[in-house]
Amino acid sequence: MKVTTVINLPYEQKRDFYLQLSDIKKAAHLLQTGGLVAFPTETVYGLGADAINEAAVRKIFQAKGRPSDNPLIVHLAKLEQIEQWVSEVPSVARQLMERFSPGPITYVMKHRGDFATSVTAGLTTVGIRIPDHPLALALLELADVPIAAPSANRSGRPSPTSASHVEEDLNGKIDLILDGGSTSVGVESTVIDVTGQTPVLLRPGGITLEDLQSVVGDVLVDTALQEQPRSPGMKYRHYAPKGEMWLVTGEDMVKKIQTISREKMKSGYRVGILTTSENEDKYTGAQIVVCGSRTSPESVAKGLYDVLRKFDLMDIDFILSETFPLSGLYLSVMNRLNKAAEGKTIS
Ligand code: AMP
Ligand code: MG
Predict the structure, then answer these.
(1) Which of 186, 255, 264, 346 is deepest in the core (most CB within 10 A)?
(2) Contact 85/146 with Cβ under 8 angstroms?
(3) How does pLDDT run across 60-75, given as a tens digit for each residue?
């Protein structure tokens, strides 16, 4: 199987996607006939397959090397289609959908038993999302089947935020990549369980906890998200760069990074530093990679996975990362950084 990049347009040129309708039609046809297509969404690139077709969905797990007990998110073109696939849309979900969908948020609801077993990992619930990206929506509409799509990376690698990231990980393993340029949000969707009285945040993402609270008031936070620090050998290693990675916190964060990086370089390590535009001039000697500006959490989220991949490409074997306050979009950024560093923190 050869990967073909059929569309190469920056995200900003939204309207032009429709000039490439034949390419999207080709991708839709591949999905309808059991193929695997990687496509851009506003969060990260997804690896899609027909969510009703068990054989097709299994190919996703194979291509990614994903453990089979980790369920996939189902993507639909329109809000109105959700009712067709779930036994009930709870009122709290309706409120959230009205405000945030299409967008970077996934609702966990009770399904009607129509999806391939591998999509839900045998659970009675399913995660459903309407992405907010013109190319993704056009593809979903033309395919006219629900599309199961996890992030289009090899399991354990940072999620892909550009078509070239997908190619790095999955070249030769999938049928097609639709290239829509870099994704705008850069971290995955917020996952929220709406099956109970009070919604439960399962994964922080593009929609912040504060945003959710502003609409529905009470939101519980899943206990797994509160475990600190996360120990190595947790069930799934995620977003992990090849080098050993440490997060550095506290008021003298910059000073600590300066000191430790000097020591490590002296001992012969290739040291990388994840920094922000405000601090980049404060470090010397190590490989400095700038991930946005501290005053713009959006810029940090957008650049995060590309930066983690850069450390691998530069063969860095010791990474020191700056950290961010645990609120707003930075909560999602810190969740990903914690996973990448397997909880290793210098405070
Ligand atoms: P990914 O597709 O790699 O972005 O990961 C999908 C995320 O959604 C994972 O964290 C899953 O555990 C979560 N998820 C999907 N379906 C369900 C479900 N039915 N119940 C709980 N979590 C889910
Ligand atoms: Mg993923």
Answers:
(1) 186
(2) yes
(3) 999 999 999 999 999 9
Q: How far apart, in Å, are the Cα atoms of 273 and each of 128, 270, 282?
A: 37, 10, 11
Domain boundary among 188, 221, 254: 221
Residue 78, domain CATH: 3.90.870.10
Closest atom of ligand 1 to 203 CA is 10
Cα atoms found within 13 Å of the Cα of residue 96, Cβ hemisphere only? 34
The answer to whether 32 and 50 have CB atoms below 8 angstroms apart is yes
Residue 342 lies in a domain: yes
Identify which of 215, 221, 213, 189 has the alpha carbon closest to the alpha carbon of residue 106.
189
What is the CB < 6 Å shell around ligand 1?
A: 70-73, 108, 120, 123, 125-127, 150-151, 188, 191, 202-203
Of 19 and 40, more confident: 40
Rounded mean pLDDT, 237-254? 89
Ligand 1 geometric centre to CA of 72 (Å)? 5
**Closest ligand 1 atom number to CA of residue 70:** 12
Other C-beta atoms within 10 Å of 164: how many? 14
Residue 240's pLDDT is what?
77
**Predicted confidence band of residue 17 (pLDDT cuts 50, 70, 90):** low
Q: What is the pLDDT of residue 231?
A: 43
Q: How many C-beta atoms lie closer than 10 Å to residue 325's C-beta?
A: 11
What's the confidence (pLDDT) of residue 227?
A: 65
Identify whether residues 185 and 333 lie together within a single domain.
Answer: no
Q: Which amino acid is at 239?
A: Y
**Within-domain flag for 231:** no
Q: Ligand 1 center to residue 34 CA distance, Å? A: 22
Query: Per-residue pLDDT averaged across 139-143, rounded?
Result: 96
Q: What is the pTM of this model?
A: 0.93
Tell how far the Cα of 140 is from the centroid of ligand 1, in angstroms: 19
